[in-house]
Amino acid sequence: MNVLDTQDCLVSADDVQDGNVGTVYAIRPSMLDELGTMVGDATVRFARQAGFAARYGQVLLLPGVDGDITTALLGIAEEADGADPFVFGALPDSLPAGSWRVRAPVDVRAGDVALGFCLGAYRMPAFGRDSAPAAPCARLVVDAEGQAAASMARCMNLARSLINTPPNLMGPDDLARAAEAALAPLGAEVSIIRGARLAQEFPTVLHVGAGSNRAPCVVEARWHGSTATDTAPLVSLVGKGVCFDTGGYDLKPPSSMLRMKKDMGGAAIMLALARLIMLRDLPVRLELRLGCVENSVSGHAMRPSDVVKTRAGLTVEIGNTDAEGRLVLCDLLHAACERQPDLLVDAATLTGAARVALGPDVPALFSNHDGTAAAFVASGMACGDPLWRLPLWPGYRRWLGSPVADMNNISSKPMAGAITAALFLEKFVKTDVRWVHIDTYGWNDSSRPGRPEGGESLGLRATYESMLKIFNIEDRMHH
In what order do the strands lie in the sheet with 435-439? Predict the structure, then answer.
């Protein structure tokens, strides 16, 4: 896995001499009148003639008297628009090679500057294509807070690269081995459940994967922080890892299948979050479960009208083979609840309905606990990783009825698809377990500052910040 080492684009302030460091001034449109005090009146005239208006992500290089470029301007959003680290991702591709320092308004956190810079420096992995040696690049001068942001960026970029990997190179076993490689060196106990044990413990995962010659498996990982006691909060993470989704016998049209390598995005995000928790040694006990599977068409594939018995003992009629993600998750959620976690979070690229409702940048959030949902929404807004709560509306539960099983895997109504999917999952969660379900897109449709086209870790930072708040954890690396 070719994941960019984000430290390559950062340099410690202790390792550079100020005379060799360029300066980027981050400017809001409302600050344009103050620009002269920063760069001088002559430079302001040049900036105006060059059309600099502090538009979001606009970068202008300012030549010095000797022709060297050691100063630049970056347009950023107004303070009222909320936290946005991504805008600093415009810098790596715009600045000349060398060391640079960013001067930003006082309300902009140094960690957000470094995080955005690192995310903008991300490059999609190259799979066999010829590539020239890496050219000298711009590097950001950072303090301790900025350096701490590198671990967050690394984990986000890990999720991106897993999602971006072509599906022939990222099957269920590949995803499981990637999880083991990411977590075992940090002290996690990782097991990969296959075969007869999978059939016994996770029958719905096996049923979804029956049509593929790449056998399904489940990753289970356990870890505890170095200062975590036996009574420390137990955090359980669950991810949908459908490495490619054809839709099964309810086959997707070609246009809908083009991005289905991203259907393991929930697993990639939860894996990356688990690694971040370990890297920062949070005082928690951690469990991770990933359902790694491929939904294919063959003589062995699940069929519409099949009835499968879940780990929880409930039977499910398969109303549509393209609603496989909830089948992957239901056994994992039930297994997680058996351990009585203090917080259970799952992430999945689950429904197109969530995208219709909220678009690609705002994952839908569902929760059985109002205070927990509020913490997630507030934390997401504060860090620029927004989530939006949708209701677990009880009136729609009857839509999941079946005449031959305890429930159907799809709704009888062509409405509220994200809600009915979440209601299906709720059936497998204990009522006394605080549960959050994140229906994420996991993808950038086009490139923007800090957000290149391709896989994206939507919801990762919001979940991490929410954990800190809910369990009153002071993350020394973060703060």
Answer: 189-193, 217-224, 285-295, 234-245, 343-348, 435-439, 364-367, 388-389
CA-to-CA dists, residue 132 to 126, 136, 137, 280, angstroms:
11, 12, 14, 34
At 275 the three-state DSSP class reads: helix
Which helix H or strand E contains 381, and what residues bound it?
helix 370-383
Class of domain 10-124+144-150: alpha beta
Choice among 275, 326, 355, 434 that is catalytic: 326
CA–CA dist 455, 349 (Å, integer): 12
In order of 241, 326, 342, 477, the CA distances from 417 in angstroms are 20, 12, 28, 40
Known active-site residue 222: no
Running DSSP on this structure, what letter comes out for residue 454?
Answer: E
What's the rounded Cα separation, in Å, for the pair 364 and 386? 9
Task: Quick: pLDDT tens for 436-460.
Answer: 999 999 999 999 999 999 999 999 9
Conformational region of residue 114, where left means phi above 0, alpha means psi within -120 to 50, and beta covers everything else: alpha
Residue 3 pLDDT: 44
Task: Please count the helices (runs of H) and the strands (runs of E) in the chain.
Answer: 14, 19
* pLDDT on residue 383: 95
Q: pLDDT tens digits for 249-294?
A: 999 999 999 999 999 999 999 999 999 999 999 999 999 999 999 9
Domain 171-471, CATH: 3.40.630.10
Tokens 């975590």, located at residue: 228
pLDDT of residue 218: 98
Identify the pLDDT of residue 479: 42
Catalytic (active site) residue 252: yes
Q: Nearest CA to 380 among 286, 271, 460, 477?
A: 460
| pLDDT over threshold 50, residue 112 | yes
Q: What is the mean pLDDT of residues 86-113?
A: 95
- Please give the pLDDT value at position 134: 60
Residue pair 419/392 in contact (Cβ under 8 Å)? The answer is yes
Domain boundaries, the chain: 10-124+144-150, 171-471
What is the spatial distance between Cα 95 and Cα 60, in angstroms, rounded to a whole number?
A: 9
- From residue 6, how far is each of 101, 137, 148, 150, 201 by CA, in Å? 16, 12, 11, 6, 39
- Cβ pair 158, 279 in contact under 8 A: no
pLDDT category of residue 2 using cuts at 50, 70 and 90: very low
- Write down the catalytic residue from 222, 252, 309, 389: 252
